Structure formats: structure tokens, C-alpha cells
User: What shape does this take?
Amino acid sequence: MSDQRLTKRLARIASAFARQPTATIPQACGGWTSAKAAYRFFENQSVEPEQILQGHQHATLERLRAHRIVLALQDTTSLNYSTHRATQGLGPIGTRGHRTVGLLAHSTLAVTPTGQALGLIHHRCHARSAVGSAKERHQKPVEQKESGKWLQSLSACQQLAPQCPQTLLVNIADREGDLYELFAQATATVGHPVHLLVRARHDRKLATPRSRSLWQWLRRQPVLANLQVRVPRRQDQEPRVATLRVRFAPARLRPPGRKPKLPVLTLWAIEACEENPSKGVEPIHWRLLSTLPVPTVQAALEKIHWYSLRWQIEVMHKILKSGCQIEQRQLTTARRLQRVLAVDLVVAWRLLSVCKAARETPNAPASDWFSKPEWQALWCVTYGQSRPPGKPPSVREFVRRAAQLGGFLARNSDGEPGPITLWRGLQRLNDLSLMWKICHGK
Assistant: This one.
């Protein structure tokens, strides 16, 4: 932001939200004066939501440059504000007409191949004006459709690529992002390409004389690998180990009949299928399309692993709703909600990232993430000591101790804590660190 006063105010609001992720705006700000200043900031017509994210995105770019491969995970989540009758500018988010209203948020999260969240590359939040008929939607160019959000995410990555030329950017989308135009846009780029990895939704026609379908043709390819994956608990299904049969081959795809001017595309197709699941278990069946070459088994398994990391952005959206309580924010216009959403997105990323850092870089100092009063107060409370050590604990120890304040039991069989118990613990830690600063005159 060009206005330094607004920049300082944003920094104070973001710090307050980060200390108490689940708090309301008045609770997080700690008093009416600060809360009133926060409300004025979110009401300021000169503040664009994109400006709020600029500083974070600049820092994300710096983190990208340190990695050879970065995965850009994109996904949409709906924010339900149906109970907020006074909020103006909302739109339908469900299939039941205008009964369910809110906003649609589409985010692109950068992660490493090990799953460390680096930050947000792109974000778009809008209110749907009207669902419209299927015929009306088909007649619009993709740029004017709601599905244009997938192309916008790719465009944001393509604009970023020349600024980190040593980093390979791979944009990853689920089945909703299986758009022919998306692949055409990716393959048309020269210079610093951004590659795609998308779960296939449409059984497209191959550009062959017989016009075979992609899925039938892929099914006839030989099984070149067996992959065992751990499937977590799902509702009434116990966790299990699934064996996936892996097939892959290059495929030339014909453009859809309604879009004959689009070029024929040469992509690589991968299938990972659980062919003999247990009774009553929904089998895993992924069909992936990529602009990256997949000439070997190792390359195919790598792409399957990359796609499996897509759940990270779903976790971030869960933190946004359950942790940051974004759907409970009470503001009078959609534009104001979009501004507070931009702040909450960075807080959600931070929670996700610090949980992963505790696993990936467990020996890093907690001071890289948390203030001195926070780690000192946490140490003294959890160890029952009056004096903290001279050096901060590791980030892993800090996260485990903070999560214990939120209900994490830290038993040998419990593994590492997740974002839910961490944000609960940070809520309590905020009060502890505040008292620590008062008692020590800091």
C-alpha cells in the first residue's frame, strides 16, 4: 500500500488476528479503540483486497526462489453468509436458488513437493450474480464464465514464472479444473512455461482415425507399477492401505466439438486405480493429465504424489472456516468481507505452514515464527518454571507445547498435532503472553 498509515494499521490487525485465530474482531483487537480502527480499515473504499495480500505475495515469491520445484494448488471454497440478512452484495452459492447466499473464494497455494506451504500466489473472491441456464453458460467464452477462475490462477503463475526462472512451477487442479482451454493456455506459453497437472473429469476423444475415448484407451495400457498408499479414516471407513495399479502414456486429444478452433493437444495421461478394494469401500481411481513428460515409472509416481498434496489447500480452507471463523465475521457488505478474508487467508496459511514446519524442519528455532514473550510464556507455563531458557525452543517443541494447551495429548501414538489443536492452543497462549509482558514490563 502507498499509504503508510494504512500499512501500519494492516500490520497491527494481522498480528492481532494471528495471535487469536478464532476470536471475533473486537476480541482479537483487545479493546473498542483498536476494534473501531479495524472496522474503519475494512470499510475504507480505497483499500482493495488485492492490496492487502501484496506484501504476503512478495514474501511468497522470495520463498519460491529457494526451491527447484513448487506446486501451485488451486481450489474453490464457498463461504456461507445466509444468516447475515443485513449483508449486501452476496450471491447464490448453492443449487437451491437464492436460499443459500455467500461468496466464492478461489485460492492458489504454493507448496513444496514435501508439502511445506510457502504462501498464496493468487486469490479471487466474488459473489455469483445468477446461476443461469446451461445453454446460456455454454454460449459464453470461458473467460466470462465462473470457470475462468482456473485460467486466472494459471495466468498468475505465468506472470510469476519469469521472476523465479530457476523454479519449475506446476499448477495443480482437481476435476473441476479439467478445461481444454486451460491446457491450451499452458501449452501456448513460451519462455518460462508453467506446467499443469489436473485430475481428468471429461472422457475426451483422441485425435486418431478411430476417435477412441481417452479413458478406454488408457485402460488398455499395460500396468507398469503397483503403488501402495495409506488411506486415512473416512466417516465409517477404517484407515487402510490401498494398492493402486499405475498406467501412463502420451495422448493426443481432439478439441471439444463446440470449440473446433482450439488446437490438438499432446498431453501425458496417468491412471492410478484400486482394482480390488475391500467390500463396502469406495475405490481410489485417479486419472491425471499433465503437460509435463512422464516417460518413466518414477516420473509417473512423482506426479501421483504431487497430486496427493492437493489436500493441503483444502486443509487451509478448513482452517479459514473453522479456525479463523470467516463465516462468522459480521460486516455489512461483501466488499468488507473480502477485505477481512484477505487478512484471514494469511493467518490460515501461517497456521498450516507452522504445523508443517514442525515436521519438516523440527530443529528450526521457534523465534522464526513466534515472538519472544510467546515462547517464553509457553515454556514457563508448560514446564512449571519461573525462568525461561536463554535460547528459544525448536519449532517442533513449541508447536507440540502450544497444541497441548488446545487439547493435544502428546502421547507416543498421537503423532504430530494438526492445525485445529494448534489454533485452540494459540488462543490460550495469547492471554498467557499478554500477562507475561505485563509482569515483566515488556
Observations:
- The two ends are 30 Å apart (CA to CA).
- The chain is about 40% helix and 20% strand.
- Residues 361-439 form a domain with the Transferase Inhibitor Protein From Tn5; Chain A, domain2 fold (CATH 1.10.740.10).
